[in-house]
Description:
Layout (H helix, E strand, L loop, with lengths): L1 E6 L3 H12 L15 H6 L14 E2 L8 E8 L2 H15 L6 E9 L7 E8 L1 H17 L12 E7 L5 H12 L6 E2 L2 E7 L9 E8 L3
Antiparallel strand pairs: 1-3, 1-8, 2-6, 4-5, 4-7, 5-6, 8-9
Helix pairs in contact: 3-4
Amino acid sequence: MRLFAAIVPPRSALEELARVVASVTPAGAEPKPAPRRGLLGRRSAAAVDEGPSDHGQLSAPTIEEMYLPITGFGNVTLGDSHRLASALRTEASGWGRPRLRFSGGTALEWRGDESVWAKLDGDLDALSTIGRGVPQIVQRLGFFVDRRQFRPWLAVGEITTDTTAPYLEALVAALEGFEGQPWTVEGISLMKGLPVSEAPKGFDEMERMPLRS
């Protein structure tokens, strides 16, 4: 089975972020309402478009598909998955709970990158401790680990063949001007990658390991 570790933000934080993305539309298209704060903003959460953008310029994940990747572990056996989970569970219980918010954005940051990213702000030192710590634990067990650098970014979509420069610039500008409500990382999720035929979102959360309270 293919496993990876991730952080899943609260649904309310993801809905708030998705409303910012949905509020940006190409020239000539009818704009969607910008996110509102307070009670009215919370009431409008149910109206969030949880599917891909209908204008075709961004391939956006649903709320259920959004997560902050930490690292991948490749294919492991069932027995090794238990060892890996046990080690992560033990270490996670000693890490603090970062207080974060979505703030800022960027896109197409390296060769081959086709994503638009929402950045995080807040207790980034504590978040980086988790981001560095998870691969180190797994390496000590002798497992494969994805060596790509951890970034405190969450993908809000990928460009398509129809994406225009003005739309992409407007979307990044909207993310740059956005400052979300604060939220706390409660745990680390161990995910199992699955074929789309078995799970529409392409993965299943096996376990959420709580951080130190």
